[in-house]
Amino acid sequence: MSGSRERILARVRAAVRDAPEVEIPRHYRTAGSAEGAAERFADRVGDYQAAVHVAPAADTPALIAEALDRRGVRRIVVPGGLAEEWAGAVPPAAVLRDDPPLSASALDAADGVITGCAVAVAETGTIVLDAGPGQGRRALTLIPDYHLCLVRAAQIVPGVPEAVAALDPARPLTWISGPSATSDIELDRVEGVHGPRTLEVVIVTQ
User: Fold this and answer.
1) What is the domain partition of the chain in residue ranges?
2) Which residue, 20, 157, 164, 177, shows the most beta carbons closer than 10 Å to its own?
3) CATH code matching the domain that covers 2-205, chosen among 3.30.1330.10, 3.40.50.2000, 3.40.190.10, 3.40.50.10420
């Protein structure tokens, strides 16, 4: 097998030995317009069939409480480091802490999880988590059926290049574009296969 491979590669090298070097231009777009980024992000997230709200910081706690009440949430995972004004909107009796780490069955039995994020991408409607403060470990947002994610407007960047530049590649990155969904060859959509069936996003403005 290795002998056949070497013979093929040798023929390729011989064929291109006298070929001139060709410079291939790579004009990648590395920056986009930040104007209207929050509006574009909200529009894209909505396209993914996620529930989207835009609210000033002062109204966010009430919005969180309404969202949880609307779903009848009784137990929701609240990761360490979540902004106090957001965590405080969760009824104390409903708070599930991941310390010590909750088992997979306990996470599955929870009504959902509430987190912040590391960065969000306007062009693609993508939320990125990196297990930082207020986000928790990856399992917290992959096992529960409902994810309520708080995104500060200042965290929204125009495109993927800006998001990549802002992230630490050594951290465990989870890129979320809408609720978990897949479809078969008949294009029958199935939600909740490898993540939350329901994604609700609150964009927090100043």
Assistant:
1) 2-205
2) 157
3) 3.40.50.10420
